[in-house]
Every structure is written in C-alpha cells, then in structure tokens.
Write a structure and sequence with these properties.
This protein has 324 residues and is of the alpha/beta class. Helices cover 38% and strands 12% of the residues. It contains eleven helices and ten strands. The protein has helices spanning 40-52, 75-87, 110-124, 143-155, 169-182, 205-212, 243-247, 253-269, 273-282, 300-304, 313-322; strands at residues 17-19, 22-24, 28-30, 57-59, 94-99, 129-134, 159-165, 187-191, 216-217, 291-292. The strands form two sheets. The chain has an eight-stranded parallel β-sheet with strand order 9-8-7-6-5-4-3-10, covered by helices on one side. The longest helix is centred in the last third of the chain and has 17 residues, at 253-269.
C-alpha cells in the first residue's frame, strides 16, 4: 500500500452542494484513472491534494478499469479504499460507485446487484457507499426489481443514496414513478454524458425528467476526454490514453468554434480553458457537480478552480452559442 506524504494543493473550495441527504463539493473527482493511467502512489497524491483543497466527492465504479491491460476491474475502488484507510479519512469522503458493467457482474438482476455491492464494499474498505449508481441500464430487468433491490441495500445501511447513469428518459421516469408509488428509495442523481461538444446526450427529455423530479446531474466526460482543456490544437501531438477520442473534435467546425470561445472567455477571466468548460457545465440547469479526473497533481488546480470562477451571463451565452 502506498503511503506517500500529502501533496501540495490548490486553493480552498468554499462551497458544497446538497444531493439528497449528502453534501458534495462542486467538483466530483473522477476515479477512472486510478490504477489505470495513474499508479497507486500518484493516485494517493491526487486524493491528498483534492481533499486538502476541500474536495470530498469521488466517483468510481466496480468496472474501473478492467479494460486496461493486466487489470480485472476493481482497481480504482481498491485504491480509494486503501487511501482513506491509510489517511483515516472515510468520513470526509462522499464515495460514488457503480454496478452493472464489470464483466463478472454484468447487468442489474437482483442477484448481480447484491453480489456486486458486497464486493465493492470490500474493495472500498467501508461498510457503506454514499451514492450507488446503476452504471448502464439493463432493460432485460424490470424497473420494479432494480428499485426494490436498491431499496433493500438502503434499508440495510449498505447504501445511502442511489442514482442512475446511462439510462433513457423513459426508463428513468418509470423508475422514479415506481419509487414514488411504492414508497421505496428513489434516485437522487443522474450521471449523463454531457459537455460543450456533446449536449444532446443530456439536454432534452432526459434533463426534463431530472428537473421534474429534482435530480442532481453529475456529467461525465465533462472535458470531452481532455479536448476542452485546450491542449489539443491543429498540429499538436498529445500523449494521453484518450488523445485519439479527444482529437476527433478538432475535425469538426463545432469543436473549433468551442475552442475559440473557450480561449476568449478564459482570457477575460485569467482562467484555464478546462476551468471555463467545467464552469459552463456547473451553470446549466440540474447540474450539481461535473466529474473530471486528474492523472497528476499538476492537472488538479484547473479543475478545482471551478468553485471560484463565476461566469457572466454573456460568457455562458457565448459558449452556448459556439456549441450549437
């Protein structure tokens, strides 16, 4: 187990936001890189810096990161569990994890969810998960079975709040209405793919359902795999596991318009492009905390600055129009 000393941190994060019974920082730190592009020592340093700056909301999944060579899944959860145990910080964290995408625990049957949550609790070295998401909806399973099973976990004290990621508006509405009708645990969070170059993945019917039921949105791919950091430019070559996906946006007119708008707004505020992109997300209806990951401590200050950057209405409008 790594026991690196706490790394230096960016400025303090003064704000927190309500999410069901939870109180979360304005940025949710993506744990997808832990055990993948960030080794254990570096992951500990990032978590040290994030929490030293006032961050408390960490997002992971049982499936992170089975897709990396040599991994089988659960690596990210294990690192987070080892970190909070070494630091004595469990009560300072709001840990969100997910079920349904790990190859050995695929889908959302009652048996799968019950087995997977116990395995996540073991890896996370905790007896409760603050926010438990269904990672991908499983339409082969009735909403009644999924919600009833999640309700059992809440009643057993294994899970505090529940959420849904990668779900259709229709299934989300059906799930929420079932919870209301039966008096069972109800989703408080939705985790959509959403950013300045991917708006129709959330805006529209899905966001409408979230708004109607008071759900908080935690957008993933908030920086479009790094594209919205501004480091991808014509003729540049960026070393990153996700550089191919990010660079694709350079080939689109919208991607270039968004970069130009990000540059202008960032210059006006003396801010990083990544901070501006996250602040635009944070300004959108229903959004509680965008998710962004840091492979190194050096990448963290631009993300944490989200909490202090206040975009004007004109800034938000300029970015929105550029992303149409």
């Amino acid at each position: 187990m790594a026991t690196s000393t706490p790394a230096s941190a960016p400025g303090p994060v003064p704000a927190s936001k309500p999410l069901g019974s939870l109180s979360v920082s304005p940025l949710s730190l993506g744990g997808n890189v832990f055990g993948w592009t960030a080794d254990t020592t570096t992951s500990f340093e990032v978590l040290d810096a994030f929490t030293a700056a006032g961050g408390n909301f960490v997002d992971t999944a049982d499936a992170y990161s089975f897709f990396a060579p040599g991994n089988k899944g659960g690596e990210s959860e294990a690192i987070i569990g080892d970190w909070h145990t070494a630091r004595g910080r469990r009560s300072d964290l709001v840990i969100a994890t997910k079920v349904g995408a790990l190859p050995e625990r695929k889908g959302l049957s009652a048996a799968t969810i019950k087995a997977a949550v116990d395995e996540s609790l073991t890896r996370l070295r905790t007896d409760y998960i603050d926010l438990y998401y269904t990672h991908y909806d499983d339409e082969s399973v009735e909403v009644s079975e999924i919600i009833s099973t999640l309700d059992e976990l809440v009643k057993a004290g294994k899970v505090r709040e529940i959420g849904a990621s990668n779900i259709s508006p229709e299934r989300l509405r059906e799930s929420l209405e079932f919870s209301d009708r039966e008096g069972l645990a109800k989703y408080v969070a939705v985790q959509p793919h959403y950013n300045l170059v991917s708006r129709d993945t959330y805006e529209g019917p899905l966001r409408d359902v979230a708004a109607q039921h008071g759900l908080g949105a935690m957008p993933y791919y908030g920086l479009a795999s790094g594209f919205l950091t501004g480091k991808y430019r014509p003729g540049t070559d960026v070393e990153s596991a996700r550089s191919g996906k990010a660079a694709e946006h350079l080939a689109t007119e919208r991607g270039r318009r968004v970069l130009a708008a990000l540059d202008e707004v960032a210059e006006r505020h003396g801010a990083e492009q990544a901070t501006v992109a996250l602040a635009w997300l944070a300004a959108q209806p229903t959004v509680t905390a965008p998710i962004a990951s840091a492979r190194t401590v050096a990448q963290l200050p631009a993300l944490m600055a989200l909490s202090t950057l206040r975009l004007t209405k004109e800034d938000v409008s300029q970015l929105t129009e550029a992303s149409e």
